[in-house]
Amino acid sequence: MRTRFHEELEQLTGMLEQMCLRDETAIATATRALLETDIEQAEHAIDLCAHVEAMGQDAEDAAVMLLALQAPVASELRRVVTALQLSANLARMGGLCAHIAGLVRRRHPHPVMPDPLRETVSRMGAAAVSMAASAAQVLATGDAEAAAALEGRDDVMDQLHRDLLNHILGPEYTGGTTTAVDLALLGRYYERFADHTVEVGRRTLFTTTGSTEPE
């Protein structure tokens, strides 16, 4: 019976890793749509995000079934509860990708951002993709050191977000109010996406060590 439980727990962990990999693909696709004003890529990103949402529901259902039928305790209980929390984080990452792609769809055929901000947004997208890839690796390996390192990498995204806001609020900005609102939302979406990868690291660290702080 416990062998079956551990097999199902490993399957649940695999589901979470696949969700994170799908988030990685979605944020890369949404960023490409944003930079290229590509409506087909935007629609593809939105479809990917819908799949992530469905996967999240499956993962949540699997975690609840393990709690209800297997009555895990101690470290096993910690793993199942953390998986339940992670499924929510990963689903929200997909939702944020859908918001980015939705901006592209709403403004098409016009670009969401002015040319002076293309480099900043491109770097935000690259940082998000890299953090999602690292989070997926953490989920696959349970590496406590790599999990703890995700928090430090979030500093890059925070600085890029500040750069974006400073440009919007600066005297050289001429993009208009509607574009400013879109850009402020865009920056927030990327920032929150990165924050959720940090939560993946923290929750994985908790599963591995029993603490959210590195040793």
UniProtKB/TrEMBL annotation:
It comes from the Bacteria. Residues 17-102, 121-203 form the PhoU domain. Gene3D superfamilies: Phosphate transport system protein phou homolog 2, domain 2. One of its GO terms (biological process) is intracellular phosphate ion homeostasis. One of its GO terms (cellular component) is cytoplasm. It is found in: Cytoplasm. Its main location: cytoplasm. It holds the Pfam family PhoU. Keywords: Cytoplasm, Phosphate transport, Transport. Coiled coil: none annotated. Plays a role in the regulation of phosphate uptake. Belongs to the PhoU family. PANTHER family: PHOSPHATE-SPECIFIC TRANSPORT SYSTEM ACCESSORY PROTEIN PHOU. Homodimer. This is Phosphate-specific transport system accessory protein PhoU. It comes from Nocardia jinanensis. The lineage of its organism: Bacteria, Bacillati, Actinomycetota, Actinomycetes, Mycobacteriales.
